[in-house]
UniProtKB/TrEMBL annotation, chain A:
Record-given protein name: Succinate dehydrogenase
GO MF annotation, one: electron transfer activity
Species this chain originates from: Thermanaerothrix daxensis
SUPFAM superfamilies: Fumarate reductase respiratory complex transmembrane subunits
UniProt entry keywords in alphabetical sequence: Heme, Iron, Membrane, Metal-binding, Transmembrane, Transmembrane helix
Homology family: Belongs to the cytochrome b560 family.
One GO cellular component, as annotated: membrane
Cofactors required: heme
Automatic annotation (TrEMBL), chain B:
Protein name: Succinate dehydrogenase
Record keywords, A-Z: Heme, Iron, Membrane, Metal-binding, Transmembrane, Transmembrane helix
Source organism of the structure: Thermanaerothrix daxensis
Pfam families documented for this protein: Sdh_cyt (PF01127)
Spans traversing the lipid bilayer: 29-52, 64-83, 104-125
Keyword Metal-binding: yes
GO molecular function terms listed in the Swiss-Prot or TrEMBL record: metal ion binding
Compartments it resides in: Membrane
Coiled-coil parts of chain: none
Any one GO CC term of the record: membrane
């Protein structure tokens, strides 16, 4: 139990600015994606193991609550991907590029790029959601 | 002032499991950008969950290309995800014994879910063909 407290306190009180925020965002988005991915593999497996249950799962995914969750999921995947590329590129090909100053800028750019990638998708998914669940936009 | 000569010795360290896992997380990232983003943009944004049903999955898996695509997704993404989860848990679980148990549980978790997903991917949609 003390492990949990110490580690969590470290996660929160560490003051590394951009590096800290991107570490936390990478963790949270990664955990979110792996949680969904586990559920997703199982629900897709229902097409063989129990097709009726597959359609039940799809119905749940079509609900407004899950629709909003899906929009956030897409952000998680975009952010985790862009930040993962930054980490992979630096670690594998340019380890001397890990400088606090340049990486502060780089962390901000990572978030900006992820948001730019996400916004059109989020807009379109929100439109689909409003169309199918609320009959807007001629749905 | 004394002068120093620097001697560099290159050492080849045999990669252990953690080194391989570390590299895997990074190399798989490059493969997963097109795989995962492509899958997500196609299914969540362009097609959308309201148009996904058994017919759609059956139609999609009628193509070998998409089955291989999904097999790659399953193989890369889930292994990456479970290893990531292991790294997070390593921050919280410190004892040798506890870590050993955790590693085995995570391995079993990965294996079972991957087998379930792989079985469905090979077997396909469970109903009579041709489709009505």
């Amino acid at each position: 139990m003390s492990n949990l407290k110490t580690t969590l306190a470290g996660y929160i009180t560490y003051r590394g600015r951009e590096g800290h925020w991107s570490f936390l965002l990478h963790r949270i988005t990664g955990l979110g994606v792996v949680l969904f991915l586990t559920i997703h593999i199982i629900d897709i497996a229902f097409v063989y193991f129990n097709p009726d249950l597959f359609m039940k799962a799809i119905e749940i995914y079509r609900s407004t609550l899950f629709g909003i969750g899906e929009i956030f999921l897409v952000f998680c995947v975009f952010y985790h991907g862009v930040n993962g590329l930054r980490i992979a590129y630096l670690d594998l090909f340019k380890p001397q590029g890990w400088h606090v100053e340049s990486q502060r800028r780089s962390a901000r750019w990572t978030l900006t790029i992820a948001l730019i990638l996400w916004l059109p998708s989020a807009f379109w998914m929100l439109r689909n959601l409003l169309m199918h669940n609320y009959g807007l936009f001629g749905g | 002032m004394a002068s120093f000569t620097q001697t560099l010795r290159r050492v080849r360290v045999k990669p252990n499991y953690e080194t391989i896992a570390w590299k895997w997380m990074r190399y798989s990232a490059f493969a997963m950008i097109p795989l995962v983003w492509g899958h997500m943009i196609l299914q969540d944004v362009i097609v959308g969950v309201h148009r996904i049903d058994l017919d759609y999955v059956a139609m999609r898996w009628a193509s070998l290309f998409w089955r291989i695509y999904d097999a790659l997704l399953l193989g890369f993404a889930f292994a990456h995800g479970v290893n990531g989860l292991r790294q997070v848990l390593n921050n919280f679980i410190h004892g040798d014994r506890a870590r050993k148990v955790m590693n085995w549980l995570l391995f079993l978790f990965w294996l079972v879910i991957t087998l379930i997903g792989g079985a469905a991917l090979i077997a396909g949609v469970n109903r009579a063909f041709p489709l009505p």
